[in-house]
Amino acid sequence: MTDYLQIARDVITTEAEVLKNMALNLDENFNRAIKIILNTKGRLVITGMGKSGHIANKIAATFSSTGTPSFAVHPAELIHGDLGMITNDDSCIVISNSGETKEISQVLPHLSRRNIKIIGITSVKGSTLDKLSDTTILLYVNKEACPLNLAPTSSTTATLALGDALAVALMKHKNFTRNDFAEFHPGGSLGQHLLKVSDIMKMNEHAIPMVKDSVSYEELIKEINDKGLGFVCLINSENKLNTVISDGDLRRALVKYGPKVFNMKALEIKNSMEPKVISEDATAFEGFERMKEYKISKLVIIDQEKNIKGILDLQDLLRAPL
Question: In DSSP terms, which residues pair with 313 in a beta bridge?
Fold first, then answer.
């Protein structure tokens, strides 16, 4: 009986060993490839034939979604008119495990003639692709996971990992952030997970419970009652957030001070705890987590100068697709 589980383990182990070997043998050519991409004024064009073409599509998608404009194109289409898609400001990543793929070999001279920078990805040093590339990253694939050592398996996995390595290195160089990522992923679960609180917050200043920190107890009650959110923001003379007083704080102050509380100013009533706030640049998911941590249903949103920008309400969060 065929042991399919062992076959699976052998395939994964073989490909893992290829990846490890490639990682250990990466050299200065990787850095040269990064420099070529960083100096590219246009887009990064990626091409490969067959399975390499499928990998090219994935690598291009990864680059584009992480801040490096890129697209993939079929090499056979390139030599039949699509070379016009590539401008002199673009650079190319050309993928061929053997380095001798016919369609690739036909494309390379045309790219070189236009002084378009070529980053070759191949397993064969001295191949046509290696010779005609401005820099070549070798895959060091000495064995496919295919039992016939024919079907692209280890080589496509290695190419895919190399594409990820290039993309991540570029992300690090550009200080690509979660917010940048959200800009390129507005739809789907990724984009939803990275919605900012500023996309959901209540921002009508007339709806935000807010008074000067010198007002009386009665004025605090009136503002909380009028706005109906169960709390009020105290702002100082510069209109910056000082603290937040809840209706519970007002009840506790009445119990503690008795009738004297009606003659007290807001600053005398405020609790000693730091107000529960969140930055306008934070994600909605972070806001939800903070509400769970503090066991509250609303957060005041502020900017770096402590200006009040809006209110984040749990009910609005629950309606948002986080």
Answer: 298
User: Which stretch of DSSP H or E encloses residue 99?
Assistant: none
Torsion of CA 126, 127, 131, 137, to 10 degrees: -80
Among candidate residues 80, 81, 74, the one with its CA nearest the CA of residue 101: 74
65-79 exposure pattern, b = at least 16 Cβ within 10 A, e = fewer: ebbbebbbbbbbebe
pLDDT 10s digits, 284-300: 788 888 888 888 888 88
- Mean pLDDT computed over every residue of the chain: 88
Q: Is residue 40 within 8 Å of residue 91, measured between CB atoms?
A: yes
pLDDT at 192: 56
Which DSSP letter does residue 85 get? Answer: G
Question: pLDDT band for position 34 (50/70/90)?
Answer: very high
CB count within 10 Å of CB 126 equals 10
Name the band, by pLDDT with cuts 50, 70 and 90, for residue 185: low
Within 13 Å, how many C-alpha atoms sit on residue 100's CB side? 5
Q: What pLDDT was estimated at residue 182?
A: 66
Query: In the chain, what is the straight-line distance between the N-terminal and C-terminal CA atoms, in Å?
Result: 47
From the options 3.10.580.10, 3.30.420.10, 3.30.530.20, 3.20.20.380, give the CATH code of 197-319.
Answer: 3.10.580.10
